[in-house]
Design brief:
By secondary structure, the protein is mostly helical. 74% of the residues lie in helices and 0% in strands. It folds into 2 domains: 119 residues, no CATH class; 111 residues, no CATH class. The protein starts with a helix and ends with a helix.
Length: 243
C-alpha cells in the first residue's frame, strides 16, 4: 500500500511553494493547481478530477490517523483541520487566498512527520518512479497518437488504440495522485481491452503504429517492475507484435 499522506504532502508543498513565489499577490487557483498536476489549466474536467482525488488523499490520511491512538491526538487533528480548510473550497475563477490562509510551513512539516509515522505504523511505502521516465512515456504516447491519426489504419482500430493510449496517458499524468496503482490498473485494462479485441488487432499486427502501443506496454511493464506477468496476460499476440 502506498502512503496517501506522502502524496498529499508532495502536492500541497508544490502548491504552497508556487504561492510563495508570488508573495506580493494571490496566484490564480486554476493556474497553480494545473501546474501542480501537470495538466492544461483550461481543462476543467481534469482539474476537477485531480482536486477530488487530492481530497480523497486527505480523507484516506485522516482515516489512518483516526484509527490509531498514536496518531489520533489534538496536535495532528489541528493540522488536519488546516489542510481540510485549505482544500475545501474549489474556486476555479478565483485565487489561492483561502489556501494561503490555512496552509503554512508548520502544517507541511507536521504532515511530513505524520506521513513518516503512518508509514512505520501501517507499513506503507512510497513508490518512486523517475519523473523523466514519466515525461518520456507521455511524449511517446503523444507522438504515437499523431502517427495513428495520420495513418491508414481502419477506423475501429484507431478508436481502440486511442481509447487505450488515453487511458495510459491519464494514469501517467495523475501519477502524483494515484501512484503506481493507477498505472497498473491502466496497464491491466489496456491489456484486457486489446486481448478482447484481438480479432481487430491481428490483421494489422505488423503495422508500426500497432506495434507502438505494445512497445509502450512493454516500457510501462519495465517501469513498474512487474516482470513477465504482463506479457503472459496477452499470450501469443504480444509475442507476435514485439518481435
Amino acid at each position: 500500500m502506498e502512503n496517501p499522506a506522502s502524496k498529499l504532502h508532495t502536492l500541497l508543498n508544490e502548491a504552497y511553494n508556487d504561492c510563495r513565489k508570488a508573495s506580493s499577490h494571490n496566484t490564480s487557483y486554476r493556474e497553480t493547481w494545473a501546474k501542480v498536476f501537470g495538466i492544461d489549466p483550461d481543462d476543467r474536467t481534469a482539474l476537477l478530477s485531480s482536486m477530488n482525488s487530492t481530497f480523497q488523499l486527505f480523507l484516506s490520511t485522516k482515516d489512518y490517523i483516526l484509527k490509531h491512538d498514536r496518531l489520533n491526538n489534538e496536535r495532528n487533528l489541528k493540522f488536519l483541520s488546516n489542510i481540510e480548510n485549505a482544500l475545501s473550497s474549489m474556486n476555479f475563477e478565483g485565487d489561492m487566498s483561502r489556501f494561503k490562509t490555512y496552509m503554512d510551513s508548520e502544517t507541511l512539516t507536521a504532515l511530513s512527520f505524520i506521513s513518516d509515522h503512518m508509514g512505520f505504523i501501517y507499513d506503507l511505502h512510497e513508490s518512486k518512479i523517475d519523473a523523466e521516465e514519466i515525461t518520456d512515456l507521455i511524449n511517446e504516447i503523444n507522438n504515437l497518437v499523431e502517427n495513428i491519426t495520420s495513418s491508414n489504419l481502419p477506423g475501429d482500430v484507431k478508436s481502440l488504440l486511442f481509447k487505450n493510449l488515453d487511458l495510459i496517458r491519464a494514469s501517467l499524468i495523475s501519477y502524483k495522485i494515484s501512484g503506481v496503482e493507477g498505472m497498473k490498473t491502466a496497464l491491466e485494462q489496456t491489456i484486457g481491452s486489446l486481448f478482447m479485441n484481438n480479432e481487430v488487432i491481428t490483421p494489422v499486427a505488423q503495422d508500426e503504429n500497432v506495434k507502438g502501443i505494445f512497445n509502450i506496454i512493454d516500457r510501462m511493464n519495465t517501469v513498474l517492475s512487474t516482470g513477465v506477468a504482463v506479457k503472459d496476460l496477452v499470450g501469443p499476440i504480444i509475442g507476435l507484435l514485439l518481435k
